[in-house]
Every structure is written in C-alpha cells, then in structure tokens.
Amino acid sequence: MPYLVHSPEDRAAMLETIGVESMDDLLVDIPQSLRLESLQLPNGLSELETMAQVQALADRNRVYPDRLTFRGGGVYRRFIPAAVSAVTSKPEFYTAYTPYQAEASQGTLQAIFEYQTLIAELTSLDVSNASLYDGATAVAEAAMMAYVHTGRNEVLVSGYVHPEYVQVLRVFGEGRGIKVRKGDQPNKKTAAVIFQQPDFLGLLVDAPALTRAAHDAGALAIACVDPISLAILASPGEYGADIAVGEGQQLGLSPSFGGPHVGFIACRRELVRKLPGRLVGTAHDAQGRRGFVLALAAREQHIRREKATSNICTNHSLCALAAAVYLTYMGPYGLRQVAEVSFKRAHHLAARLAALPGWELAFPERQFVNEFPVRVPKAPSVVKKLARKGILGGLEVNRWFRELKGVVTFTCTEVNDPSAIDELVAALGS
Asked: For residues 372 and 390, is the Cβ–Cβ distance under 8 A?
C-alpha cells in the first residue's frame, strides 16, 4: 500500500477501535531482532528518490531486478506518483463503466470534466472530449473530423509520424474513401496536414510553418503532440493548429506491456460539433445548483449511424482519470521540471553515445527533447547484447523506415538517473 491518506488522528482512532495502543502492538508475532526501526533513508528526498531507494532495497531480494529502460517509440516509462493509484483504485471509479446517459454518476462526470479542462489548458485549445482509446485512434478520428469539415478526401502526413498511427489512419480512411498521402505540400484536395511534435524519432519539426502551409491550402492543421513536452514547447493552440491529438500514457499510466492507454483530442470551438465520442459539460437546475451532464455525444448509439461523427462506442474513463490526477498532482511547475530533467539527461546521454567509436547522431542539426536517433554499428547485435545485460536499449526504426538502416532511437525520462546512464554507457563500452 504505497499511499495512505489517514491522518495521525485517524490512525489513533482505528487503533483504539481494535483495542491496541500502537502499531508495534500489531507486530507482536514478529521477533524484535527482525524488526527495523526505520529504513535509514536520507532526509529531504522527493517521492521519486524515496521510491527509487526503497526499490533498490527490495531488489536485493530478487534474482532479476527491474531492467533499465532507454526505449520509447510512443510508450514511455515515467515516475507515477502514488496518489494516482490511490484515486483510481477507489471502487466508485475502478469498477464503474463509461457513462452513457445524462443521469450518470456526478462523480464520474465531474472527473471527466476536469480531465477535459486540463487537456484543453495543456494544448491551449478551446475544448477537449472525454478521451479516446489511444494516440493512434485519436489521429484517425481527427482526420475524420477534417474530412467532414472540409468535404475534401485527402489527408497529408508530414515527416516521421508514428508508423502505427499512420497504419490505423489508413484503415480508418479506407472505410470513408479518404486517401492518405505522405509529404508536406498540401493542395486543394487536402483536408488536413498531420504532423507530430516531436516526431517519431524524437526530433522537433517546424510546427508553425506546417500549420501555415495547411491553412494556405484551406486545410486543417492536426498536431500530434507529446503531452509532457508541452511544458517546455509551444502548445498547438499557440501556433494556430486546429486540432491537437496524442497519447496520454505518460500521464500517470505505466507501459503495462502495451496498454490500456488513453488518447486525447482537443480542437477549436468551431469544430466542436465534429468532435467524436462524448463531451461532458456543466448545467444548473431550477435552484441554480451546478451539475455535470453529457453535453454532446454525437455517437451512433444516440443518432442515426450514418450521421454519427464516430462509431467508437466507449472511451478510457479510468485512464483519463489517472491522467487528470497526474496533471493535477504535478501542476505546471512539476510538469515543467519533469520535462526539463528529461531534456538535460537525454542531451547528456546523446553526447556520451556520440563519443563511442563508430557512433554518431543521425540528425545532428535537428533539436530534440528527450528522445533522439543515433547511427549504431551493428545495431541489432547491440540491442540484443544490452538485453542480455538487463537493459532495454534503444528502438531500431529500420523496421518501419528502410532509409534509416542502423538508426536506433534512445529515450531518457526522469527515471533514468545519472547512475543508470553510466551503467548503459559502461555496458556499451564493454
């Protein structure tokens, strides 16, 4: 139980109820010689540092401790405050299903409303929906919005957008008769220009220029963004993007072998009636009391199927709640600190990897935040050897992009402390 919300008064009342005077009275069956008075942790540690030291102690009892992780590619290992699970594990949230009707639980509706507000603030756009399955479906749904809004049947994918997102986009597009084209020159047939910031390789793109190019052609600009990076990068609303989408797994969700995740989508007010899924809003009763309601839900279960903006029938409410708790707990300054620490450690790691014999940054002229591509001699062998040393190394991108043979992307987050970086570099040097 990593997080206890009970005050000293609460604990005293519980001890009195069960008839003991202290916590020690509950341990009478454990010999005194085996008890620890404390863990002897230094004072002033953050929650992340405290849990890291406790985990190191626990790992002494394990044959195979947790692997070091330097792999990203759309799924990232970040520190998750204990408060996240403390809220999401409450029975009223944990066992509840997605709300369908306006009379759904006020608590669930309020939680979704808070999530929507946080995503809208994070992206600097007017409105967000109640969440989607993942980043891939968010990209596809945004393209459908552009198709309906503009009446055009082509979307343009610019640069290195996550290849799995593009695959899902193509599947969605086939059903609607939408052509998916790669490039950065929109024309009169283009409904939207889709770009990723940072892109799949972790590199920054010229988002304002891509947005202007889309608007000059009468198309919408869809920005697929990393939510943590928005603490230090310009938000989609700031450079004029019409729709912002992305994967929210980094906001309080563990990698979990691939899911479940949560997709987010936000847009300008003019597009709100094209927004897929459901939207929670506020209303007031005859006595002026505020309540939470399903304000918009243009889904196939509510209206004629051919008129629905989306045929996805649910959303990831529990994962969205985790994201809302994480964002609230971290706040703007905490989120910025996480982004800055990841930025500094990634650049430190990049410099050390580039100093290895035969290694070099794949695009040295391009900027990055916390993920970057490196040209690695005998890349497949290197990744396999790291795995045998208990290190989840970089991601080989040649499996999706043939022109990037030998390119591996490495990722640094706040959980990759200096000792972890030293261990990785030492493993590569050996």
From this structure: no
List CB contacts of 392: < 8 A, sequence separation 6 or more: 67, 68, 69, 70, 71, 386
Q: How many domains does the chain have?
A: 2
Whether 91 and 225 map to the same domain: the answer is yes
CATH of the domain at 290: 3.40.640.10
Hey, what are 340's tokens?
């800055």
DSSP 368: B
Q: How does pLDDT run across 125-158, given as a tens digit for each residue?
A: 999 999 999 999 999 999 999 999 999 999 999 9
Q: What is the pLDDT of residues 45-97, one digit of tens each?
A: 888 888 888 887 777 766 555 678 999 999 999 999 999 999 999 888 887 66
Number of Cβ atoms within 10 Å of the Cβ of 126: 14
Is a pLDDT exceeding 80 seen at residue 164?
A: yes
Contact 341, 229 (CB under 8 A): no
H helix or E strand, kind and range, residue 384:
helix 379-388
Task: Note whether 274 and 204 are same-domain residues.
Answer: yes
236 contacts 210 by C-beta, under 8 angstroms: no
**Among 324, 351, 373, residue at a domain's last position:** 324
Mean pLDDT of 165-188: 94
Chain centre distance of CA 327: 11
In a domain? residue 135: yes
The residue segments making up the domain with residue 87 are 83-324
